[in-house]
Amino acid sequence: QVQLVESGGGLVQAGGSLRLSCAASGSIFSIYAMGWYRQAPGKQRGLVASITKSGITNYADSVKGRFTITRDNAKNTLYLQMNSLNPENTAVYYCNARIGTLSLPDWGQGTQVTVSS
Q1: Is residue 68 packed enough to be buried (19+ CB in 10 Å), middle (13-18) or exposed (0-12)?
Q2: Which of 33, 38, 30 is nearest to 6 (CA)?
Q3: pLDDT for the residue 43
Q4: SS3 80
Q5: CB within 8 A of 45, min separation 6: which ones?
Q6: pLDDT for residue 97
Q7: Burial group, residue 2, by CB count within 10 angstroms (0-12, 13-18, 19+)
Q8: CB-based contacts of 61: which residues, under 8 Å, 6+ apart?
Q9: Where do the DSSP E strands lie in the chain?
Q10: Which residues are CB-neighbours of 26 under 8 A, at least 6 positions away?
Q11: What number of CA atoms fall less than 13 Å from residue 102's CA on the CB side?
């Protein structure tokens, strides 16, 4: 059974930081690369950052240098450290496996990030 539980979102002022966490079931974490995705109001969900099982990372251009994705394979937990946040980063953030350019069909509830100007 796929389990993805995101947490750590909240309301923060522009320039602030947040750290998101994602607790994933071991069956996912031990097999797949993982990614953070986000969906802003009126927009499609898109990939923010990804990390392979060995720790190779990739970022969307808009977050490079500000966001850092990490994973703790022993705890089956994915993290996203977000610094220098701006209002354009306001969205619901989700984690999921990253399988090529696809993800698993089941999603968690996400965690809301709201950045005020």
Answers
A1: middle
A2: 38
A3: 96
A4: strand
A5: 37, 38, 39, 94
A6: 93
A7: middle
A8: none
A9: 4-7, 10-13, 18-24, 33-39, 46-51, 57-59, 67-72, 77-82, 91-98, 111-116
A10: 76
A11: 4
Q: Which helix (H) or strand (E) holds 29?
A: helix 26-29
Mean pLDDT by 10 residues, the chain (117 residues): 92 98 90 96 96 96 98 95 98 95 92 97
* Distance of alpha carbon 103 from alpha carbon 90, whole angstroms: 22
Strand 10-13 to 111-116 pairing: parallel
The whole-angstrom separation of Cα 3 and Cα 57 is 22
Tokens 């994973």 correspond to what residue? 71
Q: What is the largest CA-CA distance in the chain?
A: 40
DSSP state letter for 105 = S
Choose among 24, 40, 42: nearest CA to 97. 24
Listed in sequence order, the residues at least 6 apart from 85 whose beta carbon sits closer than 8 Å to its beta carbon are 12, 14, 15, 16, 17, 18, 66, 113, 115
